[in-house]
């Protein structure tokens, strides 16, 4: 099946197949998702979709199998949660964490990434340089500028410096 034939096949059958899967699974959004995924898989196999002249049946079968697979996954997940019990309550983030996250969001992406790699992942300047493709001096610059920007953003106006202290 050529690209043009596949595009025409898609245009002629996607609505019908989505309707058929909707009836089978009972959820329109799920039907749309599995049909689209089946077409994506069919696209990579479009040269073999001429089998017996039944490419629509192949797409429908793949979509159905995807839906069943999703049901099984959801059922296993629900069973696991049921066996495990209710998860313990999780406390909300500290106000300081929220302020830090907001301050980090205001940094340029490269500074934020560099700070995260250094402070959260415990990578050295050289390791960060290798991972990001930046020079070591650029990594150092990002660290200095990022720390400086965070210090300015995280300044607590309630704390006043005492002159001469």
UniProtKB/TrEMBL annotation:
CDD domains: Sigma70_r4. Residues 100-150 form the RNA polymerase sigma factor 70 region 4 type domain. Residues 10-77 form the RNA polymerase sigma-70 region domain. Keywords: DNA-binding, Sigma factor, Transcription, Transcription regulation. It comes from the Bacteria. InterPro entries: RNA_pol_sigma-70-like, RNA_pol_sigma-70_dom, RNA_pol_sigma-E_actinobac, RNA_pol_sigma70_ECF_CS, RNA_pol_sigma70_r2, RNA_pol_sigma70_r4_t2, RNA_pol_sigma_r2, RNA_pol_sigma_r3/r4-like. Pfam families: Sigma70_r2, Sigma70_r4_2. Signal peptide: none annotated. Gene3D superfamilies: 1.10.1740.10, Winged helix-like DNA-binding domain superfamily/Winged helix DNA-binding domain. SUPFAM superfamilies: Sigma2 domain of RNA polymerase sigma factors, Sigma3 and sigma4 domains of RNA polymerase sigma factors. Transmembrane segments: none annotated. Belongs to the sigma-70 factor family. ECF subfamily. This is RNA polymerase sigma factor.
